[in-house]
């Protein structure tokens, strides 16, 4: 069986043993390359099959997307709906430090599976995971009717956050670095920044991006930090102090008030097929994973979400 792993020579497609253990077996149909995957490859992280954004089918043809979070379901955080903050030592994510979905077949715990809405093709369903991240982030902002929303960043999480805000009925603008990202944002109904905003979503993950968030925020505004930072980050002091800004962190997704955010994201993608059509820019067969990762690294060349299709 073929699987995507990092090596001293970079990403390779290797022949590995088939999946074992208890759970449900899926033939993987689509696996997205996340910015986190690209960062891990560059840092030399090895020892597992990559891929935490993936979907596939069972032997009887049923289609599912995998919510890759591994959690106990019993600790106080889990019972409160914050499964992304599970306190169990075994808590983690498939495809991050443990085998994931960039492979031909996987065996996953049954509780990780979400049946796909009929209108969501399995080849697009790998987008549910980053869409759920975006859904959770917008939810953490608690936007109120009439408030203005802006997203700083032009990658897949940024565009999906804009799509979520639009889906929930808010006007939203996007500040992106590259023209193809700006064009994608406009196709999703987002405008370009003008004025100040009640809700600012940081999906850039850079000090300059966070500084821009503080500039765009209105007095008393909320900044949601969706960007991933590897080290200590500085809060833009002057704007934050004078405007009395509130910063809120958002990680992954959970079940607030008992509602599965993964399912809400899947329903949105099913209702709005233009989101996947816009955000997924490249598709490769599994054997071309090295080239797919190269394309995913080069955002200036037009890539937003790059997808591997093992069954292709």
TrEMBL record:
Pfam families: ADH_N (PF08240), Glu_dehyd_C (PF16912). The lineage of its organism: Bacteria, Bacillati, Actinomycetota, Actinomycetes, Streptosporangiales. InterPro entries: ADH-like_N, Glu_dehyd_C, GroES-like_sf, NAD(P)-bd_dom_sf, Zn_alcohol_dh. Its cofactor is Zn(2+). Residues 144-309 form the Glucose dehydrogenase C-terminal domain. It comes from the Bacteria. Residues 24-117 form the Alcohol dehydrogenase-like N-terminal domain. This is Alcohol dehydrogenase catalytic domain-containing protein. Keywords: Metal-binding, Oxidoreductase, Zinc. GO terms for molecular function: metal ion binding; oxidoreductase activity. SUPFAM superfamilies: GroES-like (SSF50129), NAD(P)-binding Rossmann-fold domains (SSF51735). PANTHER family: L-THREONINE 3-DEHYDROGENASE.
